[in-house]
Amino acid sequence: MTLILTVIAFILLIEGAMPALFPNRYKAWLDYLSQQSPESFRRLGMTFCALSITLLVVINL
Fold this sequence. Notes:
The protein is mainly α.
């Protein structure tokens, strides 16, 4: 349970640091994403999921 909470805290740290450190780039990225088709957005999400699963498998080997 501690590991899960640590991972969630780390994700929130990264998510919060991006707009805090680079607000203009973060806003531009959000504007870019909002203009993409649902298929492109879905593909991006699936890519991030695949990378995350791959990273978890490599870490736990």
